[in-house]
């Protein structure tokens, strides 16, 4: 891994200008938000219906649960491949192909006659995950650096809201029409987004700027960049903080809320609500400040909130809001972090923006899950509020360190060469 020299940065900036010259008017932000939202809506929309799906296919619940866990794994793999393909063949064809496969897969899930066919089409549904990376790259290629961070903030709002309403929407459809209706509705949404994308989404990458290098060489170039690692590790540790919360909150506060899943879910919803607020703030204000400033402020928000929560827990404050209130800053910080860090990742090598988006997304998911799993081992031994806050603070502090490192690398790269 090496740092980015001023010469490399200058070359990257020249490539960025070439890549950022769209061949036609950029798509409306609404289109990109819908692409982003559809890419995550199916992830947990079917969760309330898993028992009914298992009963319909006479299948073991653990096997049916692969339709959620396996979906996430396939999505991460698709993001890596789709990002690189979009660098070579363009953003528009990748997005249109992903949505088309998603429509076919949704119809296949609705008509499946056994669990094997259902899981096959469910895996194919994960193709829609490519659209989130494509949406990010299109924003970057049609906006300036600060403008991109702002627009990605609004795109991230759609990305955050969709999985929040997904289970509720899916449960309602199941209750009224049966679980297969969910996939019919997803297919209809896919057709609508495909029609909108065919009309709005024009190619944004100049043909001359597309990489002709082989895929492995593209990954290697990014993995040798210190800036790519700094921004990606910042996002991974930020997601790790969230995963620690998601795994530890039910353990620490599940019983104290009377065992009510609804009450627990309500309070845990404060964190994604914070993410939406942070994304909105990024959309409003990120264009006015440098990426490094936004990133550092975001991570300081999270660390300050968790420090306050740790102090309250060590003082013995047992009120539920003394726990979930400070945790809301996880969402606010992450909502500010993701637009700025994603913009930074895409600016490392503008000619490999798709590859960078996909690789970084996969590393963010894997890194966050790994941090959450390691913390879970310790929480199983000491399920206390201050232990949970301590582990979240460690992960958040690592993200803050990565943010400072990214800021240092950006400052060093911006220094003039004499």
How would you sum up this structure in a few lines?
GO terms for molecular function: transmembrane transporter activity. This protein is mainly α and 418 residues long. It has 18 helices and no strands.
The quaternary organization reads as single chain
Report the major sheet: none
What fraction of residues sit in β-strands?
under 5%
Q: Report the order of strands and helices.
A: HHHHHHHHHHHHHHHHHH
Helix content: over 70%
Low-confidence stretches: 5-23
Work out the number of β strands: 0
Distance between the termini: 25 Å
Based on helices, strands and strand pairing, what is the structural class? mainly alpha
The whole-angstrom Rg is 21 Å
Count of helix runs: 18
The CATH class designation of the largest domain is Mainly Alpha
Global mean pLDDT: 81
In the CATH hierarchy, the third-tier topology of the largest domain is known as: Growth Hormone, Chain: A
CATH superfamily of the largest domain: MFS general substrate transporter like domains
Shape: globular
CATH architecture of the largest domain: Up-down Bundle
Function: Resistance to tetracycline by an active tetracycline efflux. This is an energy-dependent process that decreases the accumulation of the antibiotic in whole cells. This protein functions as a metal-tetracycline/H(+) antiporter.
Protein name: MFS transporter
Pfam family, one: MFS_1
Family: Belongs to the major facilitator superfamily. TCR/Tet family.
């Amino acid at each position: 891994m090496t740092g980015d020299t001023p010469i490399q940065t200058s070359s990257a900036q020249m490539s960025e200008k070439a890549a950022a010259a769209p061949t036609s008017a950029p798509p409306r932000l609404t289109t990109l938000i819908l692409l982003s939202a559809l890419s995550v809506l199916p992830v947990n929309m079917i969760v309330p219906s898993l028992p009914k799906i298992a009963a319909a296919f006479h299948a073991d619940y653990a096997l049916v649960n692969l339709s959620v866990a396996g979906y996430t794994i396939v999505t991460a793999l698709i993001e890596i491949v789709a990002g690189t393909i979009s660098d070579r063949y363009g953003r528009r064809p990748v997005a249109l192909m992903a949505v088309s496969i998603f429509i076919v897969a949704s119809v296949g899930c609705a008509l499946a006659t056994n669990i094997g066919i259902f899981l096959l089409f469910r895996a194919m549904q994960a193709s829609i995950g490519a659209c989130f990376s494509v949406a990010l790259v299109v924003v970057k290629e049609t906006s300036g650096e600060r403008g991109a961070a702002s627009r990605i903030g609004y795109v991230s709002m759609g990305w955050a809201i969709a999985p929040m309403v997904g289970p509720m929407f899916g449960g309602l459809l199941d209750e009224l029409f049966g679980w297969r209706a969910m996939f019919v509705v997803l297919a209809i949404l896919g057709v609508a987004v495909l029609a909108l994308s065919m009309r709005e989404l024009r190619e944004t990458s100049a043909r001359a700027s597309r990489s002709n290098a082989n895929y492995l060489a593209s990954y290697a170039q990014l993995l040798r960049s210190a800036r790519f690692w700094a921004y990606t590790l910042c996002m991974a540790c930020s997601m790790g903080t969230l995963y620690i919360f998601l795994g530890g909150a039910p353990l620490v506060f599940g019983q104290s809320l009377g065992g009510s899943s609804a009450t627990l879910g309500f309070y845990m919803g404060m964190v994604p609500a914070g993410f939406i607020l942070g994304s909105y703030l990024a959309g409003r204000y990120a264009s006015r400040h440098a990426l490094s400033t936004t990133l550092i402020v975001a991570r300081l928000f999270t660390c300050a909130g968790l420090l306050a929560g740790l102090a309250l827990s060590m003082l013995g404050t047992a009120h539920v809001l003394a726990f979930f209130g400070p945790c809301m800053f996880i969402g606010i910080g992450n909502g500010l972090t993701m637009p700025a860090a994603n913009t930074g990742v895409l600016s490392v090598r503008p000619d490999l923006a798709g590859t960078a988006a996909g690789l970084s997304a996969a590393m963010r998911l894997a890194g966050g899950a790994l941090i959450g799993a390691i913390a879970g081992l310790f929480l199983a031994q000491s399920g206390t509020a201050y232990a949970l806050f301590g582990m979240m603070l460690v992960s958040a502090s690592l993200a803050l360190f990565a943010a400072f490192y990214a800021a240092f690398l950006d400052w060093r790269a911006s220094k003039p060469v004499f």
